[in-house]
Design brief:
The chain is globular, with a radius of gyration of 24 Å. It folds into three domains: 4-163, 3-Layer(aba) Sandwich (Rossmann fold), CATH 3.40.50; 170-264 and 383-391, Rossmann fold, CATH 3.40.50; 273-379, 3-Layer(aba) Sandwich (Rossmann fold), CATH 3.40.50. The longest helix has 14 residues, at 305-318. The protein has helices at residues 25-33, 75-87, 107-118, 151-161, 199-210, 223-229, 244-250, 260-268, 271-277, 305-318, 352-364, 372-379, 383-386, 391-394, and strands spanning 13-19, 51-57, 61-67, 94-100, 123-128, 141-142, 181-185, 214-218, 236-239, 256-259, 289-293, 323-327, 341-344, 369-371. The protein has 398 residues and is of the alpha/beta class.
């Protein structure tokens, strides 16, 4: 039986703990989680890189706790640690600023508060070491990592502060009705874990079942035969982006068709931007730089979609000599001004906040931003059809 700890990291609430060195961040993290997640020492700078732990934290449920380096670290290496701590702000859903209550707020703490507020990031100021004071501290919640005082109240406050992933949005469940049939075309990607489907496929199947509808799963090889064997036409066909062309050719015009990547972009909140950004594919010129970015890191295969198939389709569609660059995992360049276009994956391994941050970086620098599914549909001439299930988004193409 699967446990709650099987919840994908991207679907967990990410909570970052920040503060100056020796404010007691790691000790408070350990007190909140009830385990020795972080190394604790009286030596300043014990936490040198963000430490992450996926766990269950009642009453919140599945979370990822992130313990960050001290924001006041010094020297060349210290500066790099501070940079990594600040980068964490773009990936979390809520923050806890840990302050040494015996010393009060420092300029670095106030700067962090400004950074939280600029990002509209929910946060709590935890005045740690309150057990060493004769009276309760001002300016935040009174807690003690040593005695445990206030720790339960801190967890309750976090539960009230944080909104769920997706803001109540569904991947597909709101687009279908009970007993509808949805066909899912799922090529067995050589990069997928052996014996398992990739995450967007798993999540879509689950949402179909939650809606009381019927999921029919097939590879692209058997899709045409499987479709003809059904007693009635499916409500919707959802395909992996790399099979978009074949799926469009084999799906009757009166059956709606879309992709996992388009559904994920909608779920993460950036589909409209991706649809608008796809128009840039028709404006690319020789020498233009295009960034192809993935949220996960995996071993590249001979027919990898990001490094092989997309570049081939880009050459065929544009007829241009483009400069293609790649990023994967947590590495995403903040300076995008030199790019003519960013094509991102569906973002299933990233939190909604991090996807919106990446999209925001592009928008602020005037760089068109789209994703795999939208770009591939556009290059195959089927983007309008792939958005038929989403008429309000398809209207952007008019």
């Amino acid at each position: 039986m699967a446990s709650l700890n099987d919840t994908p990291s991207a679907n967990r609430i990410h909570i970052g703990f920040f503060g100056r060195r020796n404010a007691g961040k790691s000790s408070l993290v350990n007190a909140v989680t009830g385990q020795a997640l972080s190394l604790v020492s009286d030596v300043k700078g014990t936490t040198t890189d963000p430490v992450k732990k996926a766990m269950e934290l009642l009453p919140l449920g599945p979370v990822v706790i992130v313990d960050t380096p001290g924001i006041d670290d010094e020297g060349e290496l210290g500066g790099m640690r501070v940079k990594r701590a600040r980068q964490t702000l773009n990936k979390i859903d809520a923050a806890v600023l840990v302050v040494d209550a015996t010393l009060g707020l420092y300029p670095e703490d106030r700067e962090l508060i400004r950074a939280f507020e600029a990002r509209r990031l929910p946060y709590i100021v935890a005045m740690n070491k309150a057990d060493l004071l004769a009276s309760p501290p001002e300016g935040g919640m009174s807690v003690s990592a040593v005695s445990g005082a206030g720790v339960a109240e801190l967890k309750e406050a976090l539960a009230r502060l944080i909104k769920p992933e997706g803001g109540g949005r569904r991947i597909i469940g709101d687009l279908i009705s009970p007993l509808d049939t949805v066909m899912l075309i799922t090529p067995i990607d050589s990069a997928a874990p052996k014996g398992r489907l990739i995450l967007p496929q798993q999540q879509t199947i689950r949402d179909i079942l939650d809606a009381g509808a019927l999921a029919v799963v097939t590879r692209e090889i058997e899709y045409k035969s499987a479709l003809s064997s059904l007693a009635k036409r499916p409500r919707l066909v959802v395909t992996d982006s790399q099979a978009f062309g074949r799926a469009a050719a084999e799906t009757p015009e009166d059956v709606m068709l879309t992709s996992f990547s388009i559904l994920m972009a909608r779920y993460k909140g950036f589909l409209e931007t991706a649809v608008r950004g796809a128009a840039a594919l028709d404006r690319l010129k020789d020498g233009d730089r295009v960034l192809i970015s993935e949220g996960c890191s995996h071993h590249r295969q001979c027919e990898d979609i990001g490094t092989v198939k997309l570049p081939r389709w880009l050459r065929e569609h544009t007829g241009r000599e483009l400069v293609l660059e790649h990023s994967s995992g947590t590495e995403f360049p903040e300076e995008l001004g030199g790019y003519a276009l960013v094509i991102h994956c569906g973002g299933c391994m990233l939190t909604e906040r991090e996807m919106l941050y990446r999209m925001g970086c592009a928008e602020e620098q005037g760089v068109p931003f789209t994703n795999y599914g939208v770009a591939i549909a556009h290059m195959h001439g089927i983007l309008r059809r792939s958005l038929e299930i989403l008429p309000e988004v398809r209207a952007l193409l008019d």
